[in-house]
Design brief:
Peptidase_M17_C; Aminopeptidase; alpha/beta; Leucine Aminopeptidase, subunit E, domain 1; 6-stranded mixed beta sheet; single chain; 509 residues; EC 3.4.11.1; aminopeptidase; 18 strands; elongated; 18% strand
Length: 509
């Protein structure tokens, strides 16, 4: 905690110390905190207060601004200063920097004002939480939805299996539009659900447990969850999907989820497909051991699409959405698929599996084939598909492949608003040739020519997309976590859950 005091007289210092001593004697559950903002745009006071901060400064008869000046007006963007004893309601006030107003950098594909609000709200809440304050009110920063997102995302962390859990602070809106705040909080709650699922250890989130969790989480919201077993997949001739599950033949059986959320009555649903590999060893083409534990999040696509429909239900949006999730482990064993084996997908295409670590595309292929039966408006698949995407784009954005300019443009605009940037990658016949030109079967699951691994993976998936259907493939391998450039996220990120909710919402207006 910080007083943000300089040498400005012993009387002021003594008074602030007395306030801290008085309020530190209160129990943490009774302490209340407030988050307010300042801009770095300079004025006669050396700093510009937000509207809420200006009102609070009047309530405290100028004490807030006085303390900020004592701190040397050094509230930097995304950083928080704590001030104590400014009024009788809030024991501590966190003042956070928002940076400059009206920043416009189109090339960044990011709404800086909204992202600055998320970062600031998160920083203020975290600072108060670290000081033991669990009841926090946050100003709206003229954008209550983003303020709620930053507050709810920033105060959550994965601690499911600690014997002593730290209680999360209760964050609420200080003043402003409560409806918009609750909307942002619902979206953030959905993303936190994806974060929790993705960070759960694989022995505690097998395909069976994931299916049970989906049922437990979604059915109370009026969402239908159908769980299909291995026999159903065999009847559907999903042998591409089942080939990945062979390594766990005597352990964890595969599952296939079909989730239905329909509040619109529309005949043609939006279809979301999520890669659900609950742990990926690489199979016989085994991965290096370093950081293999991160492969517990190889079901990040499944977590994201499940959490998206959870968010839609929380917001009570009038949408018709189908979610398809093939669930399996990818394990090495005596029954596992071997490099060079040939399998047949649901649409009858034969696939030479030259690399068993390119398994995500194999399970998505059959799910994409199945989506044709649903007569979709469009299909989007989300997957931690390729390490090549992480190499190409790092953790800055999601790589997107699409046969529809409209879908991509809508997604890019949604991502700019939510802070989940996307970048379009090529979906050219050049890459399809590398996948489809095989001497003895229809396709290969990897390209033999090297390079462009994300592009050839997308080209592979394209072969299974329903004919004449608008489609996008989101490769989230780079943004799944645990490292993330946004300071309001830690652990697995749950990206791009809020973007998918925003994307769907825009098509309902």
């Amino acid at each position: 905690m910080a007083f943000a005091l300089k040498a400005c007289g012993r009387i002021r210092l003594y008074s602030s110390l007395q306030n801290l001593i008085r309020f530190s004697s209160q129990t943490a559950s009774n302490r209340k905190g407030l988050v307010l903002g300042v801009y770095t745009n300079k004025n006669e006071d050396g700093v510009e207060l937000t509207l809420a901060a200006e009102c609070y400064n009047k309530i405290t008869r100028g004490k807030l601004l006085e303390q900020i000046k004592l701190a040397g007006n050094k509230v930097k963007p995304g950083k928080a200063f704590l001030f104590w004893g400014l009024d009788n309601e809030f024991q501590s006030v966190a003042v956070v920097g928002l940076g400059k107003k009206d920043v416009n950098e189109p090339i960044e594909l990011l709404c800086h004002e909204k992202e600055a609000v998320r970062v600031a709200a998160s920083a203020g809440c975290r600072a108060l939480d670290a000081a033991g304050i669990k009841q926090i009110k946050v100003e709206d920063f003229c954008d209550p939805e983003s303020s709620a997102e930053g507050s709810v995302l920033g105060t959550w962390k994965f601690q499911e299996y600690k014997s002593k859990k730290e209680p999360f602070p209760e964050v609420q809106l200080y003043q402003g539009d409560e409806t918009s705040w609750q909307k942002g909080a619902a979206k953030a709650e959905a993303q936190n659900l994806a974060r929790r699922l993705a960070d759960t250890p694989s022995n505690l989130l097998t395909p069976t447990i994931f299916a049970d969790e989906a049922h437990k989480i979604l059915t109370p919201l009026g969402i239908t969850v159908q769980v299909y077993d291995k026999k159903w997949a065999e009847d559907q001739k999903m042998y591409s999907f089942l080939s990945v599950a062979k390594g766990s033949a005597h352990g964890e059986p595969p599952k296939f989820l079909e989730i239905t959320y329909n509040k619109s009555g529309s005949v043609s649903p939006f279809v979301l497909v999520g890669k659900g590999v609950t742990f990926d060893t690489g199979g016989i083409s085994i991965k290096p051991s370093a950081s293999m534990d991160e492969m517990r999040a190889d079901m990040g696509g499944a977590a994201t699409v499940l959490s998206t429909v959870f968010g839609l239900a929380k917001l009570n949006l009038n949408a018709n959405v189908k979610v398809l999730i093939p669930l399996t482990e990818n394990m090495p064993s005596g029954t596992a698929t071997k490099p060079g084996d040939v399998v047949t997908a649901r649409n009858g295409k034969s696939i030479c599996v030259d690399n068993t670590d390119a398994e995500g595309r194999l399970i998505l292929a059959d799910a994409l084939c199945y989506s044709a039966d649903l007569k979709p408006k469009w299909v989007i698949d989300v997957a931690t598909l390729t390490g090549a995407m992480r190499i190409a784009l790092g953790n800055a954005c999601t790589g997107v492949f699409s046969n529809s300019d409209y879908l991509y443009d809508t997604l890019q605009s949604a991502g700019s608003k939510t802070g989940d940037r996307v970048w379009r990658m090529p979906l050219w016949k050049h890459y399809s040739k590398q996948i489809c030109e095989h001497p003895s079967c229809d396709m290969n699951n990897i390209s033999k020519k090297g390079g462009g691994g994300s592009c050839t993976a997308a080209a592979f998936l394209r072969e299974f997309v329903p004919e004449k259907t608008d489609w996008m493939h989101l490769d989230i391998a780079g943004v799944m976590g645990p490292a993330d450039p946004a300071p309001y996220l830690s652990g697995m990120t749950g990206r791009p859950t809020r973007t998918l909710i925003e994307f769907i919402e825009r098509q309902l207006n």
